[in-house]
Amino acid sequence: MKCPFCGKDNTKVIDSRPTDDSSIRRRRQCENCGKRFTTYEKVETMPLIVIKKDNNREPYDREKIVAGIVRSCHKRPVSITQINEMVDEIENQIFNTEEREIETAKIGLIVMDKLKVVDEVAYVRFASVYREFKDVNTFMDEIKKILN
Predict the structure, then answer these.
(1) How far apart are CA 139 and CA 132, in angstroms?
(2) Which residues of 17-34 are buried (b: 16+ CB within 10 A; e: fewer)?
(3) SS3 readout for the chain
């Protein structure tokens, strides 16, 4: 790390501590001029691109997953805390694949797996939109899967 005062690159870390936003604050001192300064380190996350059904690509947006789950849980006994925990788990699963691109189909399957455990009605609601049910028979087939 170069000293911002004298430009030499012989600095030492005096103190290191985590911050609230998951970065690390480091207090440094230049061994050449003796001045102190602070640096912040943050883990660089790789950008994730979502491949839509029509093959368009767009940046990953957590809020879209949250909105879909909130709609499917409307008037259901599912708290916002449960929803946030579910989305955290979904994100962990998505980012742990270490792929730079992911299809909406894969995200949808992960969401449905999580919803099935939390609330079956919310699961069927989400599945009806995600799988684009065309008629009542398709809807009933999905409900039969839950009952079995």
Answers:
(1) 10
(2) eeeeeeeeebebbbeeee
(3) CCCCCCCCCCEEEEEEEECCCCEEEEEEEECCCCCEEEEEEECCCCCCEEECCCCCEEECCHHHHHHHHHHHCCCCCCCHHHHHHHHHHHHHHHHCCCCCEEEHHHHHHHHHHHHHHHCHHHHHHHHHHHCCCCCHHHHHHHHHHHHC
- Between 127 and 65, whose confidence is greater? 65
Number of other CB atoms surrounding residue 47 within 10 Å: 9
Instruction: Report the alpha-carbon distance of residue 67 to residue 85 in Å, rounded.
Output: 14
Q: CA 125: distance to chain centroid? A: 22
User: Tens digits of per-residue pLDDT, 12-37?
Assistant: 999 999 887 678 999 999 999 999 99
Structure token digits, residue 34: 């003796």
